[in-house]
Amino acid sequence: METTPIFLKPVFKERIWGGTLLQTRFNYEIPSDRTGECWGISAHPHGQSTVLNGPYANLSLGELWERHRELFGHHPADTFPLLTKILHAEADLSVQVHPDDRYAHANENGERGKSECWYLIDCEEGAEIIFGHTAQTKPELVGLIERGEWDQLLTRVPVKPGDFFYVPSGTIHALGAGTLVLETQQSSDTTYRVYDYDRTDDQGNKRKLHIDKAIDVTTIPHQPAPFAPLVDEQAGGTVTTYVRTEYFTVYKWDVRESLELIQSHPFLLISVIDGEGSLKTGSDTHALKRGDHLILPHGFGSFTLEGSITAIASHP
């Protein structure tokens, strides 16, 4: 039975809409002042986390998955199924939509679909996201897109720190400027851009749009996926269960003094988004701080979180 947490080194992605907040907030070493994404727990070929500690140090998460499936409860997925990111939107993200598993597998070389969810770590006053659209039929959606009537088509939603959004495949969406988000998603990098504000890159080129595929996969009319958070108040903290879907279950742990928890899943992903403290199991104590990403492997069992910590946890 493996009782050592697997700490991971993130991968960073430069984006046209990125900034520097991932450095100032989490003390990450970022590649530039346009860094938009921290792939904290990732085995996707486009960016893999690396093990930092223990006997598997320096292995990529993909290599660990291939060589030591016992650490993941011999989970049946062909590849590591989830991806945890922290996103900083200095500017608006492109308006986009993701395919489901069936469409992605058929049209994107066997890639997974992409359902995801967002926890708003922080945001500027007045920040918004785009979440959904107004079209009631496919011809109406096509017409609004062709005429560029984005203000009529897109639904804007004001956001505040602590908000949570479940974004299943088929949902038109975009993070707005001034948002900092932890995203839990299927391990997929397939995105269909619908609109990008006519932005150009440093060479004056507009980014590619994927209008036909986006129309193919968009849910019409928009149907907000229902979810009802379950809040478990304990003496030393709070456990909030946000969603249980076929792809992932996502929790927030607010540790005020201590929380006693159990890892009874094939594996458990943890990202510390605020505070510091420790994870104790048996005679072992592991320090935790804001910006840490780790996996508790299969059979980890009971553990205690101590200190003042906010973390997002998930499992398939």
Highlighted features:
316 residues; mainly beta; Jelly Rolls; 13% helix; Man6P_Isoase-1; Mannose-6-phosphate isomerase; metal-binding; mannose-6-phosphate isomerase activity; zinc
Structural features, described:
With 316 residues, this protein is mainly beta. The protein has two domains: 212 residues, Jelly Rolls; 86 residues, Jelly Rolls, CATH 2.60.120.10. 13% of the residues lie in helices and 44% in strands. The strands form five sheets. Strands 1, 6, 16, 17, 18, 19, 20, 21, 22 and 23 form a ten-stranded antiparallel sheet that branches. A six-stranded antiparallel sheet has the order 2-3-7-14-9-12, with no helix packed on it. The chain has a three-stranded antiparallel sheet with strand order 11-10-13. It starts with 5 loop residues before the first strand and ends with a strand. It catalyses: D-mannose 6-phosphate = D-fructose 6-phosphate.
